[in-house]
What we know:
The structure is a homodimer of 454-residue chains. By secondary structure, chain A is an alpha+beta fold.
Amino acid sequence: MGPTARLAEFVVQTDGDAIPAHVIREAKRTLINILAVSLAASDDSSVGALEAWGGREGRSSVFGRGSASEAQAALVNGYLAHLQDYDDTHFPTVLHPSAPTWPAVLAAAERTNASGRDALVAFAIGCEVACRVALSVHPWHYDAGWHITGTVGGFGAAAGAARLLGLDVARTTQALGLAGTHAAGVRDAFGTNGKALHAGHAAASGLRAAALVAAGFSGPETILEGRRGFWAVLSPNGNNPAPIEALGDLIASGARWELQNNGLKPYANGVVSHPLQDAVIELRNRHAIVPGEVVAIEARVHPLVPELMGRAQPETGLQAKFSHQHCAAAALVDGAGHEAQFHDDRARDPQIAAIRALVHATTDATLGEDEVHVTIRLKDGRALSTHVEHATGSPENPMSDAYLEEKYRALVTPVLGGPAAEALLRAAWGLDNAPSVRELMSYASRPHPEHRRG
Amino acid sequence: MGPTARLAEFVVQTDGDAIPAHVIREAKRTLINILAVSLAASDDSSVGALEAWGGREGRSSVFGRGSASEAQAALVNGYLAHLQDYDDTHFPTVLHPSAPTWPAVLAAAERTNASGRDALVAFAIGCEVACRVALSVHPWHYDAGWHITGTVGGFGAAAGAARLLGLDVARTTQALGLAGTHAAGVRDAFGTNGKALHAGHAAASGLRAAALVAAGFSGPETILEGRRGFWAVLSPNGNNPAPIEALGDLIASGARWELQNNGLKPYANGVVSHPLQDAVIELRNRHAIVPGEVVAIEARVHPLVPELMGRAQPETGLQAKFSHQHCAAAALVDGAGHEAQFHDDRARDPQIAAIRALVHATTDATLGEDEVHVTIRLKDGRALSTHVEHATGSPENPMSDAYLEEKYRALVTPVLGGPAAEALLRAAWGLDNAPSVRELMSYASRPHPEHRRG
């Protein structure tokens, strides 16, 4: 049995009831995170262009935008989930597994009227498939210039959808094949709307692959291992089937799920500055620091911090995402690092600009990438210090449920309003006991207020 | 100015009125050919799966199937155009430029109510862009395992659509970028419905790229030459910007158009057997040969013929496409090599099977790939010989208009009936004087009779 068929066997034969509770819980947490970041992004002006293209007719729910066809819903939801670069990250591979997988699973669950539990199981399985394929081509594939979320994401979407559509092993193999042969996305598109569109394409293409095969379409049967398949063509400098071969153990024992290596981002910027933001917020909250009292923020950081994020005085929101000084200043002033802290007006805010000038980083190559030492000096002479060993959202320090809910509320309450935001949150936490995803999606698809007015 | 921007400049600045008449005529011939092969394919059972996926709601015409959304129309039309592998071929690169490009151009022409002439100009430009990009990565890209029609086709679709949507150079550059970053299709999918879906994906993705950018979406600006762009990622073992740099001359002089190197296929099978089929049909028709009188068909062929198409007694229609013996036998019995000659029942036909056993090929490496010597021996002792120097449809021996019309009628009359088939043919030949593509598309989208009954 080849690796592609083995993946298909895993998709079809995994006993959903045997999936450990902590895996289902992590699936719910990624859903809550995806709902948060997607709804926060749902009033972006670019979404109108997508709607002008794909229409709004259909019965599949679109985050914050009503409904559309299955193809369009998966495309837009995948796009929204990745637009702020604030979705979950599989640490070993930098794959963002949820942005392509959840939209396909949710659309398939709506089509089949699947139970909430079955949707969570399908996501866990799709996510596992995507992460395993990602591991099989890491690091060669990303290094070659592929945006792994766009390329590998389609495997996760197809796997999750195939599970819900009830495909057998042979058809699931072909669905993975059709998804894999339409894998796309190069890193030249980073910094444009194209990057998030990769995730939308992966979601829609993976869902389409499963739906077409369910309706009798044929697809290739050896997409990974074929002589002109995914490995040979999209990762010619190296690949490693071992993570997929190890799926046999997973089916037998349920021992290791890659969702455990998948982190939720506390801040809407590059991960290397996250420990610094953690530390500043911790000190700010513990000591009730008033920004005007600060005379210096001294940080001992991993060398990647100034290398990747060293823009001292950014002029736009996008530039601010590449400024650890801005990240630290916004963390001090706002106590957060959401997309709102990276709007152009925050980048130009005089108070934040003044604090940015007080940030002094020295590098220490002995630190971990998710580690930092920070001292904040105040006018009254106090020096307040802390050490973050593992930043929030890293595998060693997963985001707490309380923090996740705080992130969710910060992003969703302005969009849905308090009561609907809370109802959606309850529906997500209770999804494993819900008869369907209908209640969840009815809240999640409520038009954004900006959009309602329009 | 980088290569991507140069392509965009060509798309925007080419004077449509200055395009030579023979180029416009060749554009019409590819259209007639695409209409023929798409309508012939339009009752394939797999199309139902595509419609179950993408629906039939919308105002964009679908070959033989009514109408659908722009996204769906481009997807299905691109799929149909390539499904029988009977569309035109750019000889230098084995790109099939029309299957991705015409559907995008036709949908954009319907959206903008463009004149027939403007649609033909947009196709010629889109086709040129696709062929130039193909030349820039040939042969490395195809050899690496990419299905060049799927990957490069999106550039042609985006270019043609961008021209009709009136994008400026900067936006056209980004439309090419969005199309290029979604390039997809590996050769592992050959032999499945996935291969034709590559062409549908390219058509829809290219059209989407132009439509999204027209509506304000951003895309990468250096998709070809970027450090993580199309050339570096999808053709890392070699690329050659010269064919694109030479576009400057093209704008100035209109001297060389790749449509001149684009051939129409007379037979729905691999090109290496085409000279053999040409020869058999020529002798059959000239001498009114009755199959029962034949005792031997002796052919001196290029060595690739038995290497690629050496299956002596195929059992299915698909296998018959890889049998030069079947191709010759069907040519003798039916005088043709359309998809009908490769149905399963023809592969199993006793008369054709008996003729196949009479085909004897010897190889001669001094022959051209499009050359053959054939002798047919009859029971009465006669030996009838001919020499085909260049097979029909090769650049040196383009398919005649009469032959094209014969192919068209053989494929379209059974689908549309005689009167509508003739009306559509007239609309295509007269497209450069038509106020819009509306009349053409109203005939081209008439539901296939199989479908009307269903």
